[in-house]
Amino acid sequence: MKNDAKIFVAGHQGLAGSAILAKLEECGYKNILVRTRKELELTNEEAVFSFLEKETPEYIFLAAARVGGILANNLLRADFLYENLKIQNNVIWGAYKFGVQKLLFLGSSCIYPKLSQQPIREEELLQSPLEYTNEPYAIAKIAGIKLCESLNIQYGTNFIACMPTNLFGPHDNFDLEKSHVLPAILRKIVLAKWLNESAWEMILDNLQVGDRKTAMRLLEHHGIQSNKVILWGSGTPRREFLYSSDLASACVFLMEHVNFHDLIKDQHEIKNTHLNIGYGTDVTIRELAELISRIIGFSGEIEFDSSKPDGTPQKLMDSTKITNLGWKPLVSLEEGIRKVHKLYFNSVYNGPVTSS
């Protein structure tokens, strides 16, 4: 990409999109298009097509999606499937229709079967059943992969799909009802530490409530005590985490240096052309909680509620394909948590804890 290339970052306010935007600016790209949801509703085909026809971006990073943790994925199954399909279809098909040179589609590691061989290679896609709790979201992301791949085969486009592992970093979602595992655990432990220290001004500000009684009701609802934090599941599932700036560097690297034809192994049966993007090591949820506790300085107990779902037993990505192309991650899990924790104390979180 040339420095003056017109680049559209869809989803620039989210965790992945904001990191990609920052990386592009760091690399000297100056002609970057962004739109808020109020300015451009990506589920609206007419609006998306009109925008692409008028603005004629040369490159698109598609990082926009409706996302959430186990609870949100399981409760809002239809919403997650329908909205993500609409967003993807509109942007990807619009990119083909209006001659976008290259598009990068961001999926998710949840596309892989629940009992995939570890570490998970790209070839595991569609080999066995998905994890039920996030099946609709996964199906939407698989459809996005296949739409990119099929447009490349049928119409000669240059659309690449990449599958990040569990992301964390600036602009993450800390809502305990809807967030992913790392920010949810981080916020719970921070609040427990504050409660242990009777830091009520910070607690009330964080929860956005006006009195201690309401705060205590919310804290108890989410298993947050002064000497204990109760987390979902058994604590035994293993997860891999990637800091958002590392994902951004991978995405920009792919856009600058890798084309679809570079990913084809068999001209007679073109499939599994997507790329995994991960850190390379994983930890149990219990180990993650203990690491966060140590970083924050919380000495209370970590308890697990095994009546709640665990999700997939292990999700460790095999990122050999992209590392062989020349990319590698730089930010360790501990370093990344320290960065996020620092931002968190500067009030970088999304919304209050809800009581529902």
Descriptive overview:
The chain is an alpha/beta fold. The chain has helices spanning 15-26, 45-55, 70-75, 77-97, 135-155, 181-196, 200-207, 212-221, 244-257, 285-296, 320-325, 333-345; strands spanning 7-10, 32-33, 59-62, 102-106, 159-164, 166-168, 228-232, 238-239, 241-243, 275-277, 283-284, 301-305, 314-315. The strands form four sheets. The chain has a six-stranded parallel beta sheet with strand order 2-1-3-4-5-10, with helices on both faces. A three-stranded mixed beta sheet has the order 11-8-13. It has a two-stranded parallel sheet with strand order 6-9. The relative contact order is 0.15.
Task: Write out key terms for the chains shown.
356 residues, alpha/beta, 6-stranded parallel sheet, 3-stranded mixed sheet, 12 helices
